[in-house]
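Progress against Task 2.4 (sequence-to-structure conversion) is shown through the following example record, which the project officer requested during the mid-term review.
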Amino acid sequence: MRFTEFKNKLSEGGNKEVESALINTLNQLRGEADSRGEASEISFGAVEEIMKNTGHPTFNHLLFKQMYDTSDTLKNIIDDFNIEKIVLKTEKNAEANPEMDFDNQGSTDKVKQMAKSAMNKRK
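Structure tokens generated for the chain above:
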């Protein structure tokens, strides 16, 4: 194995470890916000500090952007981000964004109707 292959393999594994730590941290913040019924955002500087404290001193915005672009898990956790802050997807954000619940086909109305019908049959 060439040194460059070894280096690339090592850095790929290191990024997965950093990504896992980041996902765990953001999921914890999102869970806390959901339990309080609040939206959640965190400054990027705070995320860098948290990552440094968990043993990942090389974490920065460029690495974050690379991980975000390749990770569906991060895309499911993060609503928006820029160089200053990260906004997490929370239940509060979903309530504030009603177009997420809109369905042109009316399937949600049909489901509600079916559920109501089933409840009436139980009475």
